[in-house]
Each structure stands twice: as C-alpha cells, then as structure tokens.
UniProtKB/TrEMBL annotation:
<dbReference type="GO" id="GO:0003949">
    <property type="term" value="F:1-(5-phosphoribosyl)-5-[(5-phosphoribosylamino)methylideneamino]imidazole-4-carboxamide isomerase activity"/>
</dbReference>
<keyword id="KW-0963">Cytoplasm</keyword>
<dbReference type="InterPro" id="IPR023016">
    <property type="entry name" value="HisA/PriA"/>
</dbReference>
<dbReference type="InterPro" id="IPR011060">
    <property type="entry name" value="RibuloseP-bd_barrel"/>
</dbReference>
<keyword id="KW-0368">Histidine biosynthesis</keyword>
<dbReference type="InterPro" id="IPR006062">
    <property type="entry name" value="His_biosynth"/>
</dbReference>
<feature type="active site" description="Proton donor">
    <location>
        <position position="142"/>
    </location>
</feature>
<feature type="active site" description="Proton acceptor">
    <location>
        <position position="20"/>
    </location>
</feature>
<dbReference type="InterPro" id="IPR044524">
    <property type="entry name" value="Isoase_HisA-like"/>
</dbReference>
<dbReference type="InterPro" id="IPR013785">
    <property type="entry name" value="Aldolase_TIM"/>
</dbReference>
<keyword id="KW-0028">Amino-acid biosynthesis</keyword>
<protein>
    <recommendedName>
        <fullName>1-(5-phosphoribosyl)-5-[(5-phosphoribosylamino)methylideneamino] imidazole-4-carboxamide isomerase</fullName>
        <ecNumber>5.3.1.16</ecNumber>
    </recommendedName>
</protein>
<keyword id="KW-0413">Isomerase</keyword>
<comment type="pathway">
    <text>Amino-acid biosynthesis; L-histidine biosynthesis; L-histidine from 5-phospho-alpha-D-ribose 1-diphosphate: step 4/9.</text>
</comment>
<dbReference type="InterPro" id="IPR006063">
    <property type="entry name" value="HisA_bact_arch"/>
</dbReference>
<dbReference type="Pfam" id="PF00977">
    <property type="entry name" value="His_biosynth"/>
</dbReference>
<comment type="similarity">
    <text>Belongs to the HisA/HisF family.</text>
</comment>
Length: 258
C-alpha cells in the first residue's frame, strides 16, 4: 500500500478549475451531451498555466474521449502539467483498472477520479481505496434524477444508464473508507443554472465525514460561497470560468477554512 501524508489543505474549502479535453482541445459539454460541445481557443497547457499564474493550487483535468470509450490518453499532458505549472492535478476519464490508476499517479496526478467503474464494480474500487489510500482516489458519483425522484448513476461519460442508485452506493464507499466524493447533478452541468444545494445538503447528511466536491451549474462567486456554506469541501469551476463570467482571482479569496 502507498502511504500518503494527509492533505494539509483538507480543512480548507478548495476551488478546482476544470479543463475538459476532447480531441486535444478544451471543450465543455451541455449536460454531458457529446453532440452539444463548446470549443475554446486555448490549448490545455496554456489554460492550465494561466490558472496557475492566477493563483490556483488545483486543477481538475478530464479526458472526455476516454470517459466514453475507455483508455486514458492524457498522461503526457498530465506529466507536463505537473512538471511545469506546480498545480496539483485531480484527473480522470477512462480509468478502468488498477494499472490505469497507478499510471496516472506515476505521471504526477495527486488524485485519480474513478467514475464508471465505481458504479459498475464497487467491490473492485473499494479495493483500490485500500491499495492506494483514500487521499489518492476521488469517486465520482454523477447523478441524474428520474421521474420518481430517484438519483440514478449513468456511466461511460454519462451515455449509458445503470441500475445503481446514489445513496446505497455512497454508503458502500463510506464503509470502504472513502475520503473524496465528486458529485455532479448532470441536468445542471454546463447549464449555468446554479448548483444543486439541496442534493449536496442531502449527501452531507448521509456521509458527513466525506469531503464533497460540488460540480455543475456554478454561475458566479455567490454560487461558490453557497456551495461552501452548504458544507462542500470543494467546487469544480467549469463553463462560467471559461466564459469569463468571473475571474479566478475573484473566486480564490473564498478558499478559506470550512
């Protein structure tokens, strides 16, 4: 087992600018729909350097091609990012087995995001939490609410439905020692509709010791403050930051003790 020192910022609310990469370009999807893509001019490394220069400590890096098809492709970019920017990188997309996790950690990732496999094979991923340690794994349980109000967990870049539900699977991972949970309300992703604070409050009640990362819908600094006040440990900043609705420097002062 890899022994990892506790994160010194564990009790501080964190902001993670997001860079989603598809075909080598920075993009954003609407509600995870690959047919509704917005492309941005900056290359991923250029954008990451800009975030680092603005004072970011973390980056959330997603391989969208691999999220749907498997086979993480951004290891060279990840290594260059961690070598040249000083950012701590949380990254995922297409992580399917233990070797993938090890490869990303060796390439410089601080945490590896596990999504589809965490839904399909929870016993396997629980083993990874023990093998690599809970500080090195972020489980992504991204959810879509059905007509009955049940939170379901799509996989494969949110393109395939599953039979798993959010609450029982979260409790499974709590029992396995989960430390970091990323949860996106898929209906709000890329929509600038505001974060789902009710969902995050419910998750805090279910798993109060888990460090919850809010993702999807954040429009402005007020939304960032609201996620922090709802008990989240971190917020992922995507479309609003890319579209210039606020500058990263305006948001970073909100990184303070929870």
């Amino acid at each position: 087992m890899n022994v990892v020192a506790p994160d010194p910022d564990a009790d501080t609310f964190q902001l993670l600018p997001a860079i989603d990469v598809r075909g080598g370009r920075v993009v954003r999807l609407r509600q995870g729909d690959y047919a509704q893509e917005t492309r941005y001019d900056d290359a991923p490394l250029v954008l990451a350097r800009r975030y680092a220069e603005a004072g970011a400590g973390w980056l959330h890096l997603v391989d969208l091609d691999a999220a749907r098809a498997g086979g993480y492709t951004l290891a060279p970019l990840l290594a260059q990012l961690t070598r040249t920017t000083g950012l701590r990188v949380q990254t995922g997309g297409g992580v399917r087995d233990e070797r993938d996790v090890a490869t990303l950690l060796e390439a410089g990732a601080t945490r590896v995001v596990i999504g589809s496999v965490a839904v399909r094979e929870p016993a396997l991923v629980a083993g990874w939490l023990r093998r690599f340690g809970p500080e090195r794994i972020t489980v992504a349980l991204d959810a879509r609410q059905d007509a009955t109000g049940r939170w379901q967990l799509p996989t494969a870049g949110w393109t395939r439905d599953s039979d798993s539900a959010l609450e029982p699977l979260l409790l499974h991972y709590v029992d396995a020692g989960l430390r970091h949970l990323l949860c996106t309300d898929i209906a709000r992703d890329g929509m600038l509709a505001g974060p789902n604070l009710e969902l995050y409050t419910q998750l805090q009640a279910i798993a109060p010791r888990v460090q919850l990362q809010a993702s999807g819908g954040i429009r402005d600094v007020a939304d960032i403050v609201a996620t922090r006040d709802a008990g989240c440990a971190a917020a992922i900043l995507g479309k609003a930051l890319l579209d210039g609705r606020f500058a990263l420097g305006e948001a970073l002062p909100e990184e303070r003790p929870c």
